[in-house]
Here is the input.
Amino acid sequence: TLRRVLHLVSWALRSFPIADPERVYVEGGSMGGAGAMLLGLTSARHFCWVESSIGQAIARNHRPSRLTQLTALWGTPQRNLAAAFPGVAAAGVWDAQDMTSLLLTSAEAREQFLFLKHGKDDTTIHFGATVMASPLTRRSLYGVLQEQHIGHTAIWDEGGHGPEDPVLRGRWWGHLQGGVFAALAVTVKAHAFV
Here is the structure.
């Protein structure tokens, strides 16, 4: 899927000369947010911005019921079956989806700007999963972002995994992006259906 998205971006840039290759963004929510992070960090040279809304940055930090569901798809975290993601050195499927490891080992990934949004009342990607340490690197995503001086904006609100913040409503944080999604840009939206 990651290779197909990169081919699509390449096609769009070739097919629409007005599109600016310096303003290609990737964004997604939930599983698409995790995918946007993975794509945007492993292929950072192709994107100037990654927006991950309610995305899981460390697959092994999911809640137990989600780990069971993912184990049926990927095998157990202990087996860590081989994965082939563009831009990721030989790694198992669970390790390859650990953004702390990717940020610590890839200079290209560290050059990427991340916009992250989570909801305090999210029961799918719970608060702890986003701030607790990776079993692989022993560091949290936010810890690595600070330690490595990686450009990012992190937004937290009172919303859940889908339900918007009950007071602020909608995409209240849009003005914080500084109009980065300007006209003539190519935006790749990572959607996932579970």
Notes: Residues 179-185 have pLDDT under 50 and may be disordered. The CA atoms of residues 79 and 187 lie 35 Å apart. The two ends are 15 Å apart (CA to CA).
